[in-house]
Design brief:
Helices cover 48% and strands 14% of the residues. By secondary structure, the protein is α+β, with helices and mostly antiparallel strands. The protein has a domain of 192 residues: Up-down Bundle (Butyryl-CoA Dehydrogenase, subunit A, domain 3). The structure holds iron/sulfur cluster and fe (iii) ion. Iron/sulfur cluster binds next to helix 5 and helix 8.
């Protein structure tokens, strides 16, 4: 693995020549920019073996292509054990960072394409699976970060890709030649795009026969000519520019989303994994979505662990840790969080082998997992705010605490229980502010609703996959109702 540790990862980003915009300005070096660095720190944890005894076995796997040790983020799942370990790894990194560490979208994209390209080749006589395996081997060797890019900007949501006034609302092929294709369009809210070396594009929905130009999947380097990145904003994000880490709440780590624009980007044939086979596009979407819906049963649970810890800590600092209603709420938070974990493990344990030999999660259970994720983190956050109190929304700034005149006064009046320094109480409150209404809420709350597909997408899959006729038959039999 060429990139072997966090420092090498940061260095590899410094060398990338890309067109990146942030707050209206073009920036050259993203990784050392204070608005971006915390999100790079979160990705870097995927390169850090860390101190947890189980981390080595979770962060790394054995490549089915080369037999070498590779990052699990570049690995193709070879059994249900791999699927379970993926979720355990995500929980571990969520616990370390309390945010989105961004690297799972690439892993989920490669795994979805692994089985679909195999089936596409059988049905259409294409050569995509070999190309993809070559690409996976290269990604494993280099150990690069891959942004799995699915969500198109979509334009008029009431119209299909082929019916838009502007056809660029969905990434599409605008030119074809034997050496490759040229693509145009934009992918929205791309997790970790500025921290990625590669972009792996997939279609956003199942395409019709006349929508073949949109049934496209490919990989390009982030440095490819014609790609522009525009960083998305998050609540309170410019606090990172104020030189007041206390006010950031989670000063070490953060998440990141960007708009990625493809303005006639050339993709060499070897990096094209779908180009016009419209009947395969829905499979890519469903499988990527299922893998990422599984993922949330790991990462959001790890973040939930930190929030439950913060609830206990702030209750203790404010002298109410023994109150029965506080204990009840914390127990409820644990129940909700572990329910999400149960879903992540269940859809992994019930995974199945695909014709390509790789393993796929149980799709119904992965959708149940994600639909719960659209709700439970909000309930966990609500109880956390309830326990913490209104101070999370009214705290003075770090600069006020450092001011010679008002600092000592704040220290006196914002104290909690005896023996606890005021600043320790404020630190945990600032963290809770970050996670529930600040920039951390982008990853923990909004992403929990819309990431890996919005709730309605899960409802559609659940109603499609649950065998309702079978359940009716069971009820009829037990009630002795004749056909
Ligand atoms: Fe990974 Fe979770 Fe971020 Fe998705 S939201 S990339 S699963 S950490
Ligand atoms: Fe996500």
């Amino acid at each position: 693995m060429k990139i072997g540790n966090p420092e090498e990862y940061f260095e590899s980003l410094r060398g990338l020549d890309r067109e990146v915009y942030l707050l209206g300005e073009r920036i050259e070096n993203t990784v050392d920019h204070p608005m971006v660095r915390p999100s790079a720190n979160a990705v870097a944890e995927s390169y850090n073996t860390g101190e947890e005894p189980e981390a080595g076995g979770l962060l790394f796997a054995t490549s089915h292509l080369t037999g070498k040790k590779v990052s699990r983020f570049t690995h193709i799942h070879q059994g249900t054990n791999d699927l379970v370990n993926k979720v355990l790894m995500q929980r571990l990194l969520g616990r370390r960072t309390a945010t989105c560490f961004q690297r799972c979208v690439g892993m989920d994209g490669l795994n979805a394409l692994h089985s679909v390209t195999y089936e596409c080749d059988l049905e259409h006589g294409t050569d995509y699976h070999r190309r993809l395996n070559d690409y996976i081997g290269w990604v494993q060797e280099e150990n690069v970060v891959v942004d799995g890019a699915m969500t198109d900007v979509k334009g008029d949501r009431g119209r299909r890709p082929g019916d838009q006034d502007d056809p660029d609302m969905f990434v599409r092929i605008v030119d074809r030649a034997s050496e490759g294709i040229v693509v145009r369009g934009a992918k929205a809210h791309q997790t970790g795009a500025l921290n990625s070396h590669e972009i792996l594009v997939m279609p956003t929905t199942a395409m019709r026969e006349d929508e073949g130009e949109f049934a496209v999947s490919f990989a390009v380097p982030a440095t490819a000519s014609g790609i522009t990145f525009v960083l998305g904003r998050q609540p309170s994000d410019t606090r990172k520019l104020e030189d007041s880490p206390l006010d950031v709440g989670n000063p070490g780590y953060g998440s990141q989303e960007a708009l990625v624009i493809f303005d006639d980007v050339f993709v060499p044939a070897e990096r094209v994994f779908l180009a016009g086979e419209h009947d395969q596009s829905g499979k890519v979407v469903d499988r990527f979505a299922a893998f990422h819906r599984q993922s949330y049963g790991g990462c959001k649970v790890g973040v939930g662990d930190v929030l439950i810890g913060a609830a206990q800590l702030v209750a203790d600092y404010q002298g109410v840790a023994r109150a029965s209603h506080i204990r009840d709420k914390i127990t409820e938070m644990i129940h909700l969080n572990e329910t999400l974990f149960c879903c992540g493990i269940a859809c992994s344990a019930r995974g199945r082998k695909t014709p390509a030999g790789s393993y796929m999660v149980d799709v119904l259970l992965a959708n149940i997992c994600k639909l719960n994720v659209t709700r439970f983190p909000f309930e966990i956050s609500r109880m956390l705010q309830d326990i913490a109190g209104g101070m999370i929304a009214t705290m003075p700034s770090e600069k006020d605490f450092k001011n010679a005149r008002v600092g000592p006064v704040l220290d006196k009046y914002l104290k909690g229980r005896s023996g606890i320094p005021t600043m320790d109480r404020i630190k945990v409150l600032k963290f809770i502010e970050n996670m529930t209404i600040g920039c951390g809420a982008a990853a923990y709350l909004t992403e929990s609703v819309h990431g890996a597909g919005s709730p309605q997408a899960q409802r559609i899959m659940i109603s499609r996959l649950a065998d309702l006729d079978e359940k009716v038959r069971l009820a009829r039999r037990i009630a002795r109702i004749e056909d």
